Amino acid sequence: MKIGAGALSGVAAIVANLNCRRPLIVTDAFLASCGLAEKLRDQILASGIKCKVFSGAVPDPTTDAVDQGVRAFLAGEHDSLISLGGGSSIDTAKAIRLLVANGGRVSDYKVPNPIPKAGPPHIAIPTTAGTGSEVTRVAVISDSINEEKMLIAGSALMPSAAIVDYELTMSMPQRLTADTGTDSLTHAIEAYVSRKANPFTDTLALSAMRIIWAELPIAYRDPDNRAAREAMMLAATLAGIAFSNASVALVHGMSRPIGFFFHVPHGLSNAMLLPTVTQFSASAAVGRYADCARAMGIADHNDSESDAVSKLVEGLFIRNGELEVPSPKGYGILEARYFELIPTMAMQALASGSPQNNPRIPSESEIEQLYREVWK
Ligand SMILES: [Fe+2]
Asked: Can you tell me the distance from the alpha carbon of 29 to that of 31, in angstroms, rounded to the nearest whole number?
């Protein structure tokens, strides 16, 4: 990992260290059109390494976009991948890597199916703070055929290297700052309360939530604040390592179907769910949630555990107001369609496996009830 302002300038050296000669840059249309992908490509070309750009990554990356990327990779006889962008670009590169090495379709490797071979090296360069995808062994790809957000996971998906340069996040619009930052906060909280948490992931998760709780409102209100941007970028990566090793839980399980069916950005659908799902889950891990409240500075040691948890839930609701997070209804989702899809969403949430890591393991009907509760 290369971390800090200007780390991006080390990209050609990393490509060379990995013994790669023909990387394919995987990015989205926006980063291609604003010149950032071109700048990266030119920087690599200047070092004598051949390089092309594939700009077909899309939000909620689909199997169609992945298949196009695989064709671009093979047609250009590439030997490595560089993803540049948010979670969508990084996850698309992970899936291209998976298929180039193992053949078949993404659905063949849906959790809990194993991924046999790691494939070509992948250097991840996040431009949001963020999904943490640069340090995780998971990716989420939407099946273009059967309407499902598929989770794929395995050490084979872990990027070979990551460049975590917060200067790339300075121009993020306000909404994206809020949504990706809340995604990171959700990673930290869910990793900490997860049934798969361990002392290593606890340390990372607590550090991440402490930073995000303090810095996200600053980065949201004052986008040019370099210190806040730097802190958020670091925290997003910390939270990424935490959840990649401890897993996420019910919020993520329920968030993916909302994202798939209604095209709500991932961090925003997490935010819609986080306070209510925390309220639902808290009774099963009061001490753990109280730790979160104290780490985030919402409660202190004079508060009882149950008071700390109440303050946490209240704080999460208030924070959603500050960050102007709409409910599903406020987002403009059609009511009839939302309620019609609740059983399907609940089934997909459970099938993802994430709810089983939650401190309070929900039944299908409890998940349906939570979807109804957050509608507003
Ligand atoms: Fe996430």
From this structure: 6
**Other C-beta atoms lying within 10 Å of the C-beta of residue 342:** 17
Residue 149 banded pLDDT, cuts 50, 70, 90:
confident
Contact criterion met (CB below 8 Å) for 115 and 138 = no
Burial (0-12, 13-18, 19+ Cβ within 10 Å), 85: buried
CA of residue 17 to ligand 1 center, whole Å: 30
**In angstroms, what is the span from residue 187 Cα to ligand 1's centroid?**
6
253, 282, 258: which is closest to 192 by C-alpha? 282
Q: Alpha-carbon distance 307 to 313, whole Å?
A: 10
**Residue among 180, 224, 192 at smallest CA distance from 325:** 180
- The reported pLDDT for the residue numbered 111 is 87
Q: If we measure between CA atoms, which residue out of 31, 19, 166 comes closest to residue 90?
A: 31
Q: How much distance in Å is there from the Cα of 191 to the middle of ligand 1?
A: 11
| Strands 2-3 vs 122-126: parallel, antiparallel or unpaired | unpaired
| Residue pLDDT, tens place only, 246-288 | 999 999 999 999 998 999 999 999 999 999 999 999 999 999 9
Cα 186 to middle of ligand 1, angstroms: 7
| Rounded-to-integer distance, Cα 213 and Cα 298, Å | 9
**Which one-letter amino acid corresponds to residue 41?**
R
201: CA distance to ligand 1 center in Å? 16
Distance 251 CA to ligand 1 centre (A): 9
- Could you give the angle at which helices 335-351 and 250-262 cross, rounded to 10 degrees? 130
> Tell me: the pLDDT tens digits for 218-245?
999 999 999 999 999 999 999 999 999 9
Sign of CA dihedral 247, 130, 137, 234: negative
The CB density around residue 226, as the number of other CB atoms within 10 Å, is 13
Residue 335 Cα distances to 43, 331, 371, angstroms: 49, 11, 12
pLDDT per position as a tens digit, 179-212: 999 999 999 999 999 999 999 999 999 999 999 9
